[in-house]
Design a protein that fits this description.
- With 489 residues, the protein is an alpha+beta fold.
- 38% of the residues lie in helices and 24% in strands.
- It contains 14 helices and 17 strands.
- Strands 1, 2, 3, 4, 7 and 8 form a six-stranded mixed sheet that branches. Strands 13-14-15-17-16 form a five-stranded mixed beta barrel. Strands 5-6 form a two-stranded antiparallel ribbon.
- Helix 2 runs antiparallel to helix 14 and helix 8 crosses helix 9.
- The longest helix has 34 residues.
- The protein is globular.
Length: 489
């Protein structure tokens, strides 16, 4: 096969994305019954709940990816005696998607929106997830609000949940807000235009940092992952940019972990079974111990998040250049999370990586099915009704969510490799600085530093090991298989 730039540009990434979805058990097309349900929703939109509080006047804002249209949550904070009150408004998806309806049945099959980099395959139809149930700027929406109070010691002292009418006053993006909060960039236009919004975000950032400090004290893992996001460029070629954690992504993460913890505790206290997301004990702790030993740190023989966290922080300070690679290795060795049924009063299985005992997913009902189920449980709790789900049903939903999330990771990974192969196809013969990321029976794998692309070293991988820096030359790309081959240069 010839690999001229032309050939790669003619490779149809969107078609490959659909094929990959189907191969891994997803159904990228919506069944006809869904269109009928959407038609009914257009004619008879759900009425606002009589018990909903009117919180349209609060200065709500959202922070998400630059391109996101499926907005699940908005935030607002205010000082109270002894600390701060934080309100997280969650899109009321359940109002539009009743349990057992055609859209709900399809969502249960898929359980997650899949972002392939060239096309998003929504768990819900776009008309809902990026329209009527998305918390878009300046649109009045129904929301379920999770409220919690954070005291001066960064402890969550009180929490509540209720329905409300809300309006997102400022749709913001991670990259620009993160740079501004870190003092590395100008305030985004909307923030610069409003002293109130600026004050609001600085307050939220301060609260989030305290919450994170508190989690780290309990041994939450400080992991830095580089997620590569394919960025399309106007002439049809593709550039690849790394998305790094920044103050804004961490602010949202900290608020969501706190909100999810509050939800889990409320349901537990009121006697409702729920779905939790857990990383049980790490699968390959022995190998994590070995990695730490290579860097001169002795970790205990039994899994313990706190010493692992301390080791990671020390490594980040000592060798920031290689820290993302160490993080990635540790994440892989911890193993992926899974969804489980949690009965009230039973000992919590906890989430190893987050060091929070009570962890559920409830903040993204537009894109994750578990969160939609949790929203229904919260509504039952608020109304003092019994759960709409039996324990068996919840256990089945949890198993399905775990299964499809594993499939989603495979789809995303395969598509990332294909996109990278297409993006690199015009650069055959060029040299790059790279780092060795893996050595196994299949060969030696490297990742180039600029842009971040993984590939295989096809000649002369002898005498080098993970973490070594090498200079490589791009020799071949194969978008269909997602292969990128390098040679030592």
């Amino acid at each position: 096969m010839g690999h001229s730039g032309n050939h790669a540009h003619s490779f149809d990434l969107s078609a490959a994305a659909r094929r990959t979805m189907i191969e891994h058990g997803f159904e990228p097309d919506y069944p006809p019954a869904i269109e009928q349900q959407l038609e009914q929703l257009r004619e008879h939109p759900p009425q606002a709940s009589a018990t909903a509080r009117d919180l349209r006047g609060l200065l709500w804002s959202s922070i998400d990816n630059d391109t996101s249209r499926d907005l699940d949550q908005i935030e607002y904070a205010e000082p109270v005696a002894g600390g701060h009150r934080v309100l997280i408004g969650i899109a009321d998806v359940d109002a539009y998607v009743p349990k057992g309806s055609p859209i709900d049945q399809h969502a249960l099959r898929e359980t997650t929106t899949v972002y392939t980099g060239v096309e998003n395959f929504g768990m819900l139809p776009n008309e809902l997830s990026t329209g009527t149930t998305s918390l878009l700027e300046d649109q009045e929406r129904a929301a379920v609000v999770i409220e919690f109070t954070v005291d001066a010691q960064a402890q969550i002292t009180a929490s509540d949940v209720y329905r409300a009418r809300v309006v997102n006053q400022g749709q913001l993006a991670y990259r620009s807000v993160g740079a501004w909060l870190a003092g590395e960039g100008a305030a985004p236009t909307k923030v610069a235009a409003s002293a109130e919004l600026e004050q609001q975000l600085r307050m939220q950032n301060g609260i989030a940092q305290r919450l994170r400090g508190q989690r780290f004290n309990h041994g939450a893992l400080n992991l830095l992952t580089l997620e590569t996001q394919p960025i399309r460029v106007s002439d049809g070629s593709i550039e690849i940019e790394a998305e790094e954690k920044n103050n804004a992504t961490q602010l949202i993460e900290d608020f969501m972990i706190a909100a999810n913890g509050a939800v889990a505790r409320m349901l537990d206290t009121k006697g409702y079974a729920s779905i939790r997301r857990v990383v049980k004990t790490p699968k390959r702790w022995d190998r994590i111990v070995e990695l730490a030993a290579q860097k001169g740190t002795k970790l205990p023989a039994d899994p313990d998040p706190k010493p692992l966290h301390d080791f990671l922080c020390a490594q980040q300070a000592k060798d920031p250049e290689h820290f993302p690679d160490l993080s990635l290795a540790v994440i892989k060795l911890l193993g992926p999370g899974e969804y489980v049924l949690e009965r009230p009063g039973a000992p919590a299985q906890g989430h190893f990586g987050l060091a929070v005992e009570h962890y559920t997913h409830s903040t993204a009902p537009n894109r994750r099915y578990a969160d939609l189920v949790m929203q229904r449980l919260l509504k039952a709790m608020m109304a003092g009704q019994q759960s709409p789900y039996s324990d068996d049903e919840l256990a089945q939903v949890a198993a399905q969510c775990t299964r499809m999330e594993d499939a989603e990771r495979k789809v995303s990974r395969e598509m990332q490799k294909r996109i990278a192969a297409v993006a690199m196809s015009g650069r055959i013969g060029q040299n790059f600085d790279a780092i060795v990321t893996g050595v196994n029976e299949h060969g030696t794998f490297v990742r180039t530093l600029q842009p971040h692309v993984e590939g295989m070293l096809v000649h002369d991988g002898k005498g080098i090991d993970v973490g070594d820096r090498v200079r490589v030359k791009l020799v071949r790309t194969d978008p269909e298989r997602g292969y990128i081959d390098f040679a030592r240069s």
